[in-house]
């Protein structure tokens, strides 16, 4: 970066910063935030025109046609969510990612369980994302986390997510927690816990500092589901069996306590 520009950086007005930053790539913007307090302040405004332009340029237009991204109010948060969305290169061959970038569609293939992982994994910090099932659950509908070593497709109708020691899941059909091929109890720990209804919002909360996995439903915290998670890289993951079912996932960032 030009030394003269850096020297006068603290005094550059916002309208000029907006013009300069509009020509930069995301990696450059990240570096610019480290130049001085003034630039950092400007780029911390997640709804300014710079982030708006980046968001509208990279996030598919289809993603804005419904309330899918309403849970992430700022342009920068929407952009971040897109980079964390389902990975079209890390899903079952019976799954495709819709043009909005956030929703997977499972094709109606008999005798197959099919899953998908997010683009970015987590090993440190605290992370939350929202999952919404659209369409019938079928006999298996599991939401949770997996490493890259976990299978993403198998023959038959099977609780794939949670079937090995590389994945942890909550089957929304029978309210069972699953890991390493075993059921780890009913979840949530409520008498006659209500079953998931299509369209309800599930929030997955991964705490890599405390090594726990938790869930919320319709903004109600359901308790810690798994503890003592090993030190691995985890990816948002789901597994489904019902034909033409669709599952959306939106990354939210660090969970809000309380």
From TrEMBL:
GO terms for biological process: negative regulation of nervous system development; proteasome-mediated ubiquitin-dependent protein catabolic process; protein ubiquitination; synapse assembly involved in innervation. Pathway: Protein modification; protein ubiquitination. InterPro entries: B30.2/SPRY (IPR001870), B30.2/SPRY_sf (IPR043136), ConA-like_dom_sf (IPR013320), F-box-like_dom_sf (IPR036047), F-box_dom (IPR001810), FBXO45-Fsn/SPSB_families (IPR050672), SPRY_dom (IPR003877), SPRY_FBXO45 (IPR035784). Residues 6-54 form the F-box domain. Keywords: Neurogenesis, Synapse, Ubl conjugation pathway. The keyword Lyase does not apply. CDD domains: F-box_FBXO45 (cd22111), SPRY_Fbox (cd12907). Residues 64-256 form the B30.2/SPRY domain. It is found in: Synapse. GO terms for cellular component: SCF ubiquitin ligase complex; synapse. Component of an E3 ubiquitin ligase complex composed of hiw and Fsn. Required in the presynaptic motoneuron to down-regulate the levels of wnd and restrain synaptic terminal growth at the neuromuscular junction (NMJ). Belongs to the FBXO45/Fsn family. This is F-box/SPRY domain-containing protein 1.
